Every structure is written in structure tokens, then in C-alpha cells.
Amino acid sequence: MQRIIGLFLMTVILSPVSGLAQTRKRTTTKSTRTSAGEVQRAGAAHVADQIKILTRFIYLLGGVAKGLETVDDATRRNEASAAIIDQARQNKATVRASIQSVREGLDKLEIDFRTTPELQRYYIKLAGVAAGAASAEDLAAANQFDKAGRTLLEVVNHLTDVLLEMR
User: Fold this and answer.
1) What is the total count of domains within the chain?
2) Distance separating alpha carbons of residues 53 and 32, to the nearest angstrom
3) How far apart are the first and last CA of the chain?
């Protein structure tokens, strides 16, 4: 008998206290609306993401542009093989497509800022970044990759100004 009482007491003592509490589940309602601060932080995060994408791209573009200039110079002197010229042509197409992708991302960023009420006040500062990327796209189409990179640097500066305004 003492053993049974002892086991009973041990079971009660070792059992979780929540088992003795109410069993009704409490529900909390989370608002589906986001605060202006959350929207602003998300907008700033998007701007920061674009800055990261652009700076990484510009870094890579520097080396590629230098290589393309070297191949173009060799081509003008008739010193480049057909395989090298073909590879350079493919690299140029890849760079152009990448700049187009960057511009599309910036277009989307501008649209998001223009159409989101909490971000509209920053849109004025942001406006024009996609146009800068479009200029870089035009320069790349004209095989002016170094100038395209410099134009994208101006876009990064513009985005950085927007980010500073948002903090």
C-alpha cells in the first residue's frame, strides 16, 4: 500500500504542471495589417538588396570589361582567333542580359515604392534609378562596358542616398 501511494506521489510530482492547468486553448489574434515601420524596414531591405546586387555586379563587370576591351583591341589588330572572338561575343551578350536584369529589378523597386502608401514619400528620392540602369544598358549595347559600369556606380550612389533618407 505504501508502495502504491509512493508511486502515486512520484507520478504527481514528476508530471508536468501544465497537465493540471486548464485545458482550454487560448488563441491570440495576430493582426494581418502591417505597421508603417515594418513596411518601411522592408522597403529599406529591398533597397539594400539592390545595392548589394549592383555592387557585386559592378565588381565582376570591371574584370570582364577589361577582358572584353583586350579582345576588342586584339580583334582590331587581327590577332584574335575566331574562338576568342566568339567567346567575347557570348560574354558581351551575358553582360547585356545581366544589366537588363538589374534594370528590371530597379523598375520593380520603383513601382513598389510608388504604389505602396508607406513608401511613397521616398519614391521622389528613388525615382530615376531605373533610368540610370537603362542608360547603362544602352552603353553596354554600344560596347561601352566601362562607361556602363560607371553609370551603375551612380545608381548605387542614388540608392545609398535613398537608404540614408529611410533610416
Assistant:
1) 1
2) 31
3) 71
pTM of the predicted model as reported, rounded to 2 decimal places: 0.74
16 CB-near residues (< 8 Å, 6+ apart): none
pLDDT (tens digit, 9 = 90+) per residue, 3-26?
A: 444 333 344 344 444 444 445 555
With respect to residue 15, please indicate whether it lies within any of the assigned structural domains.
Answer: no
What is the distance of C-alpha 88 from the center of its chain?
A: 28
**What contacts 137, CB < 8 A, 6 or more positions away?**
96, 99, 100, 103, 148
In this structure, what DSSP letter does residue 28 have?
A: -
State the residue for C-alpha cell 494581418: 32
CB 102 within 8 A of CB 108: no
Q: Could you tell me if residue 125 is inside a domain?
A: yes
The whole domain housing 86 covers 36-166
